Amino acid sequence: MVYRDRADLPNSVQRVLPDHAQAIYLEAFNHAWDQYKEKKDRRGGVSRKETAHKVAWSAVKRGYKKDEASGKWWQKTERSKRESEQE
Question: If one looks up domain 12-37+47-86 in CATH, what number appears?
Answer without folding.
Answer: 1.10.1740.70
